[in-house]
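FIELD: query
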Amino acid sequence: MSESLTIMQRLRQGFSGLLGGTGSAEAATPHGLPVNLGGYEFAKNSPGAAARLHGVDQALVWVVVALLMWGMIMVYSASIAMPDNPRFARYAQTHFLTRHIISLVLGGAVSVLAFQVPMETWEKWARPMFVTALVLLVLVLIPFIGKGVNGARRWISLGVMNFQPSELAKLATIIYAADYMVRKMDVKERFFKAVWPMGAAVALTGVLLLAEPDMGAFMVIAIIAMGILFLGGVNAKMFFMILGILVFAFVMMIAMSPWRRERIFAYLDPFSAEYALGKGYQLSHSLIAIGRGEIFGVGLGGSVEKLHWLPEAHTDFLLAVIGEEFGLVGVTVAICLFLWLARRIMVIGRQAIQLDNVFAGLVAQGVGIWIGFQAFINMGVNLGALPTKGLTLPLMSYGGSAIMMNLVAIAIVLRIDSENKQLMRGGRA
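FIELD: result
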């Protein structure tokens, strides 16, 4: 952090020295001094120029659009045969596709509104937003308010769609943690003043999530909070101590829960007679689907595993259908797209920190951690590299509130990028 601030101070000193010496430089270049920062080249506006937002990152937008469109096609492909199941007999073949498109439209509309909100306003909303997320996590546990599916109570029915408070909690945690680190910047070396309150907030969120139960969302939120604390400059000893405590907590949760232990054993040998038709069923059929796809896949729509063999093919195991229909090539393309997306978001966050906008930088990097880590977990589960966990593939899997929150997070990142460009042009964000 201090290194980034030092670089920014040097840049400012250099710019002021060059511009303040004589007027010849400005006379030679009517639009002012060109500024190159983080791969972008801008011209510094005159002091009296009106501040306004400039174009967003086109590459980032198109990568997100590509993932959304590909996800929409795969959701349709993975769910088209579901009405053949007596459980879904009343649904049309386009039922899940239609609901997914509605989620995309609603998410797009909300993200456009989110883009209009300045980062200063998001910073003011940090604590009320986090409290709201906690209240919703409590409400979802109340009978007749929270909706239960397969033994888990994680959704609140809104008629058009089911809202999952844990998705809002992920975004709220990012904004709250970034605001928290900015407020605690002066005491970040002290455990009880800098780390303990944030740890207590995450612990409270974890208790509510585990009551649903939703250990996957808790893992994502814990990693987000830890990542922002680390990037915010928390003392290394305190960071590794907290990390150790967190790892110990997850190990104890698994050890004390019989069905979580069975998932670990099933992950180690999913094709055994003991687990093949139980806890290892999803993983074994996911591996079968990916193996059947070989290099180039069987073609779009040609998946066999989606024909009631692979449960939740349109949500948690969408990558398995991609692997079967597009093969190794399709899985590799998906991995590369998510790698590029996470890296690009982290770069935008770094640029914001270089421009002395620490809150915006930490928010962007928190979003990068969220999307990157959740995609990593989902892909690891589908490929058999990690134990089965109920996490969707960001931007691609079927889901209303998940898609909406993903798009809002991307909109906030685009807002940060736009404000970065404005600052580099010499205006005010």
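FIELD: remark
Residues 178 and 312 are 34 Å apart (CA to CA).
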